[in-house]
Amino acid sequence: MSAVAGAGTRSGRASRTGRRRRHSETLAGYSFLAPNLIILGLFLFIPVGWAAGISLQSTNGFGSGDFIGFENFARLARDPIFWQSAFNTALFTALIVPLSMGLGLGLAVLMNSVLPARGLFRTIIVLPMVISGVATALVGVLIFDQNNGVLNKLLKASGLGAIPWQSGGAAAFASVVLVTLWWRVGFNMIIYLAGLQGVEPELYESAR
């Protein structure tokens, strides 16, 4: 009987020790997660919840608003400008994502080959990504300005008509797509180039 009682006591102690260990590990895990959760709560979850609350109110931007439920969403669904904006956004995404990935892959393959002045070309391609976004936007304005932009000056010098890059709907959309591609292709090229340079030469030999 004493042996059985001792075994039960040891089993109970081992069980309590295991629970304490699991409890301490759980606390350690939450302590590591706490800083990130606090930051996410302050800068993501609370603003999103606040914006969701504001979307259910009628307000002029000053003072407290009046709760109107989903009336704002109903009015948005009846607004043709919203649907035009949604279509433009979807078209923009459908163009930018495959083009930026395809051009990035093509440039990465080109930069990974035996190309003269590869360092210079890499710097030119990556430059929009490493400089300020404001500077990149200003360069885009200098190129696509419909009055004094570089591109329209070249078109006029060639005997062609100027393109309304800001006032024309299709032209303005094209200018935004081109500037965005110029800005994003460098990042995709770096990712693909890192992957290509990580391929062992033996794999190429085996493929050949």
Any overview of this molecule?
- By secondary structure, this protein is mostly helical.
- The chain has 2 domains: 2-74; 80-207, MetI-like (MetI-like fold, Orthogonal Bundle), CATH 1.10.3720.10.
- It contains 8 helices and 2 strands.
- It has helices at 2-54, 71-77, 80-112, 118-130, 133-144, 150-157, 169-197, 201-207; strands at 57-58, 66-67.
- It has a two-stranded antiparallel ribbon.
- A hairpin with a 7-residue loop joins strand 1 (57-58) and strand 2 (66-67).
- It starts with a helix and ends with a helix.
- The mean pLDDT is 83.
Low-confidence stretches: none
Oligomer: single chain
Provide the gyration radius in Å. Answer: 30 Å
Helical amount among residues, as a percent range?
A: over 70%
Taking the sheet with the most strands, its summary is:
2 strands, antiparallel
Strand order, biggest sheet?
A: 1-2
Q: Name the helix and strand elements from N-terminus to C-terminus, one letter apiece.
A: HEEHHHHHHH
* Measured distance between first and last alpha carbons: 77 Å
Q: What's the domain count?
A: 2
Silhouette: flat
What is the level-2 CATH architecture name of the largest domain? Orthogonal Bundle
- Text of the CATH class of the largest domain: Mainly Alpha
Number of helices: 8
